[in-house]
Amino acid sequence: MDGSELKKGNLPKIVEKFEYDAAVGGNTRVENEITTFNHCHQRINEIKSLTSAIANPNSTKLVFQKLPKHMRRRAMSHHPNRLPRKYRLAHRAQMSKSGAPAQTKRPSRKYRRKPSNILAAYQRRQRANIWLETHIWHAKRFHMVSKWGYKLAESSCDKTFRSSYRATMKHCLIQDISYVGNIEIRGPLDVLRNKFERMRGRTPDLGLCAKAYVGGQREGTIELFSIDAYPYGALGRFQFIWKRENDNDALRTLWLFAHPSVYQKLVDELCELFELELQDDLENGVKKHMNNTINAELYEMRHQLNRFRLTGPLSHAVLTAAFKPKITSTSEEKTWFVDYLMEEKNRKIHQTQTKHWNDLKHIKSAIDLPPGMILGLNIEDPRINRPKKRTKALPLIDSPMDDGADVCCTIPEFNGDSVLWERNKCERIQNEKVSTHEICVQRNKNILVPGERCAFENKLQAVPVLLIQRPGSKDPKNLGYGNGYDVIVPPGYGISTWMCLIMWGAKPGALREMETVAREALEDEFLPDTTSSIVNSNLMANELRKKYFRSPPNKRQNYLKLSIASPFKCPWMQLIQEWCNTSSPTEPKYYVLRDKNKLNKINQFLLGKERNLTDIDENCLIPVSLAMNGRGNAKKFSIICLPKKQDIRNNEKNRNEFINRPVLSEPVAIDVNETQRKLLRLNHLKMLKRLRRRRVRVKRKQQEFVDRKVIIAPSHTTKQTKLQYDRMCELWLPSAPKAIRKQCTRDVFGYLTQCQFMFHEAKVSGVGYVTVNGIRELAKLGVNQKRKLNQVLVRDPNSSIYRFATLSIRYH
After folding, report:
1. Does some domain include residue 43?
2. How far apart are the first and last CA of the chain?
């Protein structure tokens, strides 16, 4: 607009600005100018409240909530020291108003690591489970489990499965088996012989009172049963040692070593057998049972000795390097060993044992010694005979011994003598033991040359030990595997001896290695009819079943579709009952066949050299070993099935064409409980929702009459939930299967109890048990087909594939 237009009076038209006002809901006119006085007058109340808030800050937020986000920590609400210093006082004031308890300062690590406090904590933790003397050492390096009332090492934290096997084959593996309990029985030899005849099997094996064992020079192994119950009621396999008889000893002493799962059962059977009564007085911390009529006594020495097991060809070399016989000296202080050598007989025993041990130093392995040989030694304190760093002990081959064959084949008369048989001496040895701290202090004072022996170490008391030779496996395929020594050490010297053997090259093992050694030797640690096996199988089945149901339904293996009736346990009783020809209302008992003559007859029957098995009881289980013919893997609880004619033809066809496909695959079965499970779960959820709605209605009614907040009542549905869980478990996996023999398309006549890849055979092998009637059916099938009689089908419980395996009778 130019000036001429202004002069004419043409003023510009003012355009009004309209904006949308959300509060009014339409257009409104906005002022071009605002008067300051009027605006402040209208906002005077807001200014006053803002000024008051700045002068008197009152906030609902806590102090630690006002910090910037990058400085906030979750632990600040409980630990004021997490906050900056200037906020700590205000934070404590806020926490005290809420009624929170004052935070007590945790004791310092220096206080917690005091010896007295550590000891008190250890004693508190041992109330639930008993600790071995090597527990602290194992707890730092192994996975620990609670078993049989003990806290035991299960497996190493490192990957040591193959290295442990190499140790058993070429080196030395050591295991702490001090959980094996000791029972001492005293009485006349005739009484002991007659009584134990009622508990042993009627087999041609050597008995408890055989001449080979009564002299106290060898350790024996025996199968014991309940009183007058053979062949049923098996207790287990036990090791035993006789104390050497003196000229004036009318009573004989016997040590029985029992597994903790059957220890109390064996004690009860022995008390009933000898008619013993528990005495009120306790002698040296052991339980005492007596029968004055027959002059018999029983002592429970469950935690009185340490026992270590050394396995492998270098076990002898490790013991030779670690155990040095104590040299007699007149300048020693007053110890038990000085008093022991005052008698001429004891000096002769010590000299004989020392000479025999020195003569055996140059042998290569323990397998060269007589089976079960016992050797007692009085050695130097193991703490003064360990190398500075871990060293691999090797056999001494530089100077071979003279007349080696005679030394290895003969056992001196006094070999088994030891003061470990006397409980008062063992208690004195434990009390007179010099602590490791005192040894270090004295060594620092008296040592002249670093690393050399000092005079103080020669004054330490001797330590009595018992060495027991183990011959190893008797199987021709792996003869001698697992040979080594068992070392019995007095109480108080367990960890000292353990560390000495470890430093000389022994590789530590645990319960897993115990099963591996037994499996590689084709032996079963627990036979199915023994008390130990029943206890352990029930515990394992409960653990595996709980683990199975902890997984969500879409992650569980549906065993109903796989036609597997019992994936976590071997139902021997039901298997025997379904295979017995006679139908009786009572459940038949079962037992494992141990008679080697009958086992040999069954083996000849499979080879076609024996026509019938009429004298074999139908209620017995036959121990067998299986080896997979080709590909395929089998695990524990795998089923052993009878093949059909078509299976044998398909297997031969695949072998001729070099095809590795399976001969048979189990068809997927129909899960008859699937609909019922879904309906049961739906009804259960409806019930829970209905109960919750009922509790909500009750809460709302109560809220109408009170001012405070009403909390909803607890559900109290634990009983219903537990019942629902049990019903669902039964629908997923019935605890009492309807059929075992006919659970799948092939007849089941046995189970595998141990199976894995065998290193010495380079194939998958295992041990198991089958029924007698199943062996007969297998033989009929082989005769009709004019083929081998030892080919069976094996199927893993988690797979639908059948594989052929070779069956052979196992002489355990």
Report:
1. yes
2. 122
